[in-house]
Amino acid sequence: MRKSVSGCSLAVSVRAVSVRNVFARRAGVLSLAIAALLPSMASAAVFVNEFHYDDATSSGDVGERIEVVATAGETLSDYRIVLYNGATPSAAVQYDSDPVPAGSLVTCGGTVRIATVSYPTNGLQNGPNDGFALVDGAGNVVQFLSYEGQITASGGAASGKTSVNLPVSESGSTPAGTSLQLSGSGSQYSNFSWQSSATQTFGACNNGQTFSGAPANTPPSVASTVPAAGTTTFPAAGDLSVVFSEAVNLAAGALTLQCATSGAVTLSYPASGTNVTASTGTALHAAIAETTPAQFDHLVAVHLKAPYFLTQALLPVLADGGRILNLSSELTRFSLPGSSAYAMMKGGIEVFTRYLARELGERGIVANTLAPGAIETDFSGGMVRDNPQINAMVAAHTALGRAGKPEDIGPLVATLLSDSTGWVNAQRVEASGGMLI
Fold first, then answer.
1. How many CB atoms lie within 10 A of CB 297?
2. β-pairing, 110-118 with 222-226?
3. Which positions are annotated as active-site residues?
4. Of 90, 11, 83, 423, nearest in space to 254 by CA
5. Which of 196, 297, 378, 381 has the most beta carbons within 10 angstroms of its beta carbon?
6. pTM value?
């Protein structure tokens, strides 16, 4: 998608699909352009293929397992099996959750991948009204099956969902070494039917089952985006998001944001999901007219509420005569358009620090604020370090003629936390090399 904001370009590549989002000024209109690549890696049918939960063994059920199959041969390591106890069928509770192994390729007519989750003796509830959910890496419930009666989950991954009760079951007279299996021919769950207990085939082809005609590996599609197609007014600091038609997995570095002015901007986003939000972080750069209540509240939570209540929680274990050093910013001394909300948070930290010094003084605890200038770090996507234009601008406005480096700040932090500065209290110490003086 193209977004008419600040000449920024966002590139997105997803393990199951490749999506390119390009943000650039072009006739003031947001258009959507998607290139779907790597279709061979898209998810096909994944479902429970065999399981065993009850038998006639007097010492307890043996060989209890649940088998999962992927008809396109994809790895199953992102999936989990969540077990439910339906003693109260209308409010079944989760009692176990186990990862599914990656599985092995098996040829049963066509080649599929099969993985088995094994349980200890009596590890699976015997019913009535028990079940399990197959859950993918994004937390989506792929299947919710039950045996000996339907159940509704009251918590866990399948919370609020009602199971599909299977037409087959086992009992205390079922021979050991058997299982309930799907049989038939096809590539989708609906092509097969559950059969009564037969000799176990875990990890291999089921009795009377053939896989054929694997479904087409259709890549996930984009259902919606923020900003939406056609948008012409979108805040420069707004988070970007895309909703996919199915869950996708995002590798490290899958999303990158490049801006004409600020250069590369680091994005934070979940590793997987259907609704993926890419955030530019907490150093909000937006005019007062563009800042949203949600963005402001997020800054408050990160830069004010978190330090306040973290400090509160640590007060009982903070040694008398100890040191507190909070971090502020040079932006509380001078003004740069687009930094109002962030600077307000740092101004609040400076006020908070003075109150800490006052209230904890009787314990001999010293509290100060360190306000670094523009430093060559990862902050704001590393723009001071990595963008030559921004770095030169900072240097031009700094008395010492360069941007700050981490080694300019570290020794000062150590000094302000040392015993030698115990008489420095309730102060704001700026380390900016003399920027904008």
1. 11
2. unpaired
3. 342
4. 11
5. 381
6. 0.47
- 358 token code pair: 């006052």
At residue 209, the 3 state secondary structure works out as strand
Other Cβ atoms less than 10 A from the Cβ of 81: the count is 24
Which two tokens mark 303?
């830069």
Q: Residue 326 in contact with residue 367, Cβ under 8 Å?
A: yes
**What pLDDT is recorded for position 144?**
97
Compute the Cα dihedral for 319, 323, 326, 332 and give only its sign.
positive
Say how far apart CA 151 and CA 158 lie, in whole Å: 11
Alpha carbon distances (Å) from 366 to 312, 400, 411: 15, 30, 18
Q: Cα–Cα distance between 249 and 255 in angstroms, integer?
A: 12
Rounded CA-CA distance 190/162 in Å is 18
Q: Which two tokens stand for residue 351?
A: 């006020």
Strand pairing report for 80-85 and 263-265: unpaired
Number of H helices, E strands in the chain: 6, 22
Task: Give the Cα separation of 380 and 286 in Å (integer).
Answer: 13
pLDDT in tens, the chain (437 residues): 223 344 455 554 444 333 323 222 222 222 222 222 233 333 458 999 999 999 999 888 899 999 999 998 888 998 999 999 999 999 999 999 999 999 999 999 999 999 999 999 989 999 899 999 999 988 899 999 999 999 999 999 999 999 999 999 999 999 999 999 999 999 999 999 999 999 999 999 999 999 986 555 566 777 777 767 666 555 555 567 878 777 788 777 777 766 555 556 667 778 888 888 877 655 667 788 888 888 888 889 989 999 999 999 999 999 999 999 999 999 999 998 888 999 999 999 999 999 999 999 999 999 999 999 999 987 776 778 888 888 999 999 999 999 999 999 999 999 999 999 999 999 999 999 999 99
> Do the Cβ atoms of 266 and 378 come closer than 8 Å?
yes
Which residues 6+ apart lie within 8 Å of 388 measured at CB? none
Q: Which residue has the tokens 């909703």?
A: 243
Place of tokens 């110490």: 429
First to last CA, the chain: 43
Taking residue 402's Cβ as centre, other Cβ atoms within 10 Å add up to 15
| Residue 395 DSSP label | H
Instruction: Give me the DSSP letters along 310-357.
Output: HHHHHGGGSPTT-EEEEE--GGGTS--TT-HHHHHHHHHHHHHHHHHH
User: In whole angstroms, what separates CA 89 from the centre of its chain?
Assistant: 32
